[in-house]
Amino acid sequence: MRAVGVVPTQRQVAQLEHEHPELSRPTQLKVRTLDVGICGTDREICTFVYGAPPAGSDYLVLGHEALGEVVEVGSGVKHARVGDLVVPSVRRPCLDPSCRPCQIDRQDFCATWKFNERGINQNHGFMTDFFVDDEKNFVVVPQDLRHFAVLAEPLTIAEKGLAQVWQIQARLPWACEEPGQPKGKGLRAVVLGAGPIGILGAMTCVLNGFDTYVYSRSPKPNDKAALVESFGAKYISIAECTPAQLAERVGNIDLVYEAVGVSKTSFEVMMHLGLNGVFVFTGIPAPEGHIEVEGNQLMRNLVLKNQVIVGTVNADKAAFQAAIRDLGEFKRRWPHALEKVISARHPVDNFRELLTGKATGIKNVIAFGK
């Protein structure tokens, strides 16, 4: 069957012939792939910076943002049914019995660094016609989210990040507790970057009641600025406003959700994080190079202003469930904005341009099925 992947030893990005999968355990689902999102991680793997095939294979099937349809269920499957739409998670646990997170299916906090990730590291991904996995690694999707559910995985980054923010900020009276009001009411959030992670993060912040500002590179007017402002966030260009001016305009910055992967911009904004604020890192810059940081002032701010910095990667099942729930709410509130997050759906034959050509649009999707 068709698959798109990389052959690291030959430094090739290619359409491959991949073995058709079959159920091997009673708790498994067989899924027909419908949509696979393209992200920066896929494109980086195609530069052979990282990404490793499974043991015994000379290639890695790509794809970790996916939506599929269940076509077969094992005898031990409890909830999923043939015909259900499902979104798979990405990371699989390590096998070390001493790893407490992996033992309870919280491999997003794996303590051994011996996990594997579908489509990224030592486990084939979803950029293929069919795939098989255990039922616990899927979330069932309502049929009316068929067009948007491929966005669930990138949205889980914001869902997990915000879940940690609420837990951390339980240290003080911070979240709104008024009946019927969102928890973020009265708080201000700055989202760094207007790519898919940033836009979906901004939607999540607005949904949770934050007064939300997206701080991104391109000056207005531009399509991303128009999209961001269509669902109630405010767009501010880095080219036209320094971090100090941003803080002056916003007021006390309660939350920064970093989705840009640029350390210089991130640390410059961090210098203006507000009293009792939280800074969430999600981006992974290249390891090369260095920047200068005002370390003394940063440390003073962290202590004197009761600030917290947290990094977040991958997501648990609760984050996937929250992502599906919130996609439904985005669709209800801002259907046109949500449609614009997906720039285009492409046939499989376009894989090379999408993975190795110039990045365009917001979220591009390879459509494997109807």
How does this model look, in words?
By secondary structure, the protein is of the alpha/beta class. It folds into 2 domains: about 1-140 and about 340-365, Medium-chain alcohol dehydrogenases, catalytic domain (Quinone Oxidoreductase, Chain A, domain 1); about 155-310, NAD(P)-binding Rossmann-like Domain (Rossmann fold). The protein contains 11 helices and 19 strands. It has helices at about 40-45, 100-105, 150-170, 195-205, 225-230, 245-250, 265-270, 295-305, 315-335, 335-340, 350-355, and strands at about 1-5, 10-15, 30-35, 60, 65-75, 85-90, 90, 115-120, 120-125, 130-135, 140, 190, 210-215, 235, 255-260, 280, 310, 340-345, 365. Strands 3, 5, 6, 10, 11, 18 and 19 form a 7-stranded mixed sheet that branches. The longest helix has 17 residues, at about 150-170. The radius of gyration is 21 Å and the shape is globular. The relative contact order is 0.16.
